[in-house]
Task: inverse folding
């Protein structure tokens, strides 16, 4: 019993130390952002009061209302089209007879490991030649392509988990394949699709390099891109305002995480294992 | 129409199945595969992005290999692998080894906190750490507090310290992920295996090497592939923290690709570096998968 207790104390201590290490940078910039504007805090003291002025200043000066709106547009486009296309493809791969599954999968596997640093140059010149750079299209279309390999692998594994008997019964009653997908399989897939939605939301929201390259117009910047310009701008050199801006950008994903953390974690951990 | 699905001879292929693949593959081929092929082509040319492309064969690759700045940027990436992969995996394994039979109350809360760095934009993470490492930031204030004024400095502005200190941000991002992954793996190992090891007189250390480690093989492969690819790409964090500086002390290949293509107008050279980075990642991932497959 004593031995058990000692082990538990050690386990809790490790987790608490780990949690402090993780949380310290967050509280550090939160305190900084909440500090009195103009007053330099040393970073090792707790602020004397709570001031929201830095948040207001960051919001109005950094153009974050535009940035956050743009990010939501891009996320909506990427997530909805990716899920639609990947569901159809994963269904065909898992439940329909397809010749040449292995080479098609190998092709998708390339996209799963590919550092997309290597393709953005070509994407930029192609988009520019069609006058699409600096538009939502230049952000949405490539990110659909980049999200599809993971999404197909993820959804295919969930299709696999649905027993064959379900669709066979419907087949005997004369239902077509599309009807079977919509009426019988998709209702079973809702949890998997939800988790995928959460992951795609997060990845698309946080995407940076593509936006950095495609967007020149300040009004078209996504939230992380607006943040990087804001943080690099000497005129707003005050670290407290930059900290407040960083919190604005992190907030939508953080709020989602508070409610759906299990989906985030299980999605990324099992998703990584399945890959 | 529907009778077709009641009985279907095995040797007949229904080509309409392929219709379901078309939308996904159009997006993938047009926006991922075609750009990759195009980059591959451009890597054999000299091109400033505006004028005609000039075919130069392997010249760009030869120049890259001879360019000391580029070879040292690849060396930096390997140093970052120590911080992004090796350190978090060691930390995760050691902690998982300690958690074999402990049921911790409040595990889901700890898990949620430890996983937090994974969900945030690297730009946000970079800004938080820029403040911690700042000349008057928390790290230096802490050092001053303990009377270590001589030690404190502008960490990210130092030629010697910038790279390891950027690396430590990667360790911070990754260690929670490896911990969660390995603890989940350890809990799937049947307790009989540990009991058997106990009967054989195995101590804690031999238990770790003979039972825990071999049974976590799958999780270790996952962690390696995930963290190594991130360490080799890593554009966002370098861009927001150091921009590759001071000098070229934190320069990495992806930063070079960006600078060459979009600031120096050397598109051919940037493309060849992009292909080299892709090959490097594919090679490392294959090596990881091969090593762990052989041990089966």
Result:
């Amino acid at each position: 019993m004593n031995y058990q207790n000692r082990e538990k104390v050690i386990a809790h201590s490790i987790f608490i130390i780990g949690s402090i290490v993780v949380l310290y940078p967050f509280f550090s910039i939160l305190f900084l952002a909440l500090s009195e504007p103009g007053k330099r805090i040393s970073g090792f003291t707790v602020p004397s009061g709570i001031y929201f002025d830095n948040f207001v200043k960051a919001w109005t000066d950094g153009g974050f209302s535009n940035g956050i709106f743009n990010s939501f547009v891009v996320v909506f486009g990427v997530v909805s089209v990716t899920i639609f296309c990947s569901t159809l493809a994963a269904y065909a791969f898992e439940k329909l007879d397809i010749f040449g599954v292995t080479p098609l999968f190998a092709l998708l596997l390339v996209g799963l490991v590919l550092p997309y640093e290597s393709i953005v140059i070509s994407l930029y010149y192609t988009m520019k030649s069609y006058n699409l750079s600096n538009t939502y299209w230049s952000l949405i279309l490539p990110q659909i392509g980049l999200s599809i390999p993971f999404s197909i692998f993820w959804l295919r594994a969930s299709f696999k988990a649905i027993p064959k008997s379900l669709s066979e019964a419907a087949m005997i009653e004369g239902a077509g394949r599309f009807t079977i997908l919509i009426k019988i399989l998709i209702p079973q897939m809702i949890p998997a699709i939800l988790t995928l939605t959460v992951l795609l939301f997060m990845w698309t929201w946080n995407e940076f390099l593509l936006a950095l390259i495609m967007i020149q117009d300040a009004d078209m910047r996504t939230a992380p891109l607006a943040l990087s310009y804001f943080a690099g701008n000497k005129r707003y050199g005050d670290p407290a305002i930059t900290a407040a801006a960083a919190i604005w950008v992190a907030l939508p994903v953080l709020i989602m995480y508070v409610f759906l953390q299990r989906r985030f974690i299980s999605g990324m951990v099992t998703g990584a294992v399945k890959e | 129409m529907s009778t077709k699905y009641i009985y279907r001879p095995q040797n007949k292929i229904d080509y309409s199945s392929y219709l379901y693949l078309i939308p996904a593959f159009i997006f993938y081929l047009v926006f991922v595969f075609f750009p990759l092929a195009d980059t591959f082509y451009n890597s054999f040319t000299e091109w400033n992005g505006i004028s005609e492309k000039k075919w130069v064969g392997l010249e760009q690759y030869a120049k890259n290999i001879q360019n000391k700045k580029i070879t040292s940027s690849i060396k930096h990436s390997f140093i970052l692998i120590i911080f992004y992969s090796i350190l978090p995996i060691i930390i995760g394994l050691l902690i998982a080894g300690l958690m074999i039979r402990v049921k911790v109350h409040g595990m889901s809360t700890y898990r949620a906190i430890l996983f937090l760095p994974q969900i945030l934009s690297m730009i946000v993470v970079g800004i938080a750490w820029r403040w911690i490492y700042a000349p008057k930031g928390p790290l230096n204030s802490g050092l001053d507090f303990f009377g270590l004024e001589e030690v404190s400095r502008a960490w990210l502005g130092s030629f010697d310290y910038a790279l390891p200190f950027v690396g430590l941000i990667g360790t911070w991002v990754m260690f929670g992920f490896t911990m969660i992954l390995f603890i989940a793996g350890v809990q799937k190992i049947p307790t009989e295996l540990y009991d058997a090891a106990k009967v054989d007189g195995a101590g804690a250390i031999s238990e770790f090497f003979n039972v825990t480690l071999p049974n976590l093989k799958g999780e270790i492969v996952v962690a390696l592939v995930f963290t190594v690819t991130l360490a080799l790409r890593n554009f966002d964090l370098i861009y927001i923290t150091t921009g590759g500086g001071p000098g070229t002390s934190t320069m990495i290949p992806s930063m070079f690709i960006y600078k060459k293509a979009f600031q120096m107008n050397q598109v051919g050279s940037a493309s060849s570096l992009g292909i080299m980075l892709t090959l490097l990642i594919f090679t490392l991932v294959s090596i990881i998968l091969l090593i762990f497959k052989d041990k089966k």
The mean pLDDT of chain A is 88. Chain A touches chain B through 97 residues (CB under 8 Å).
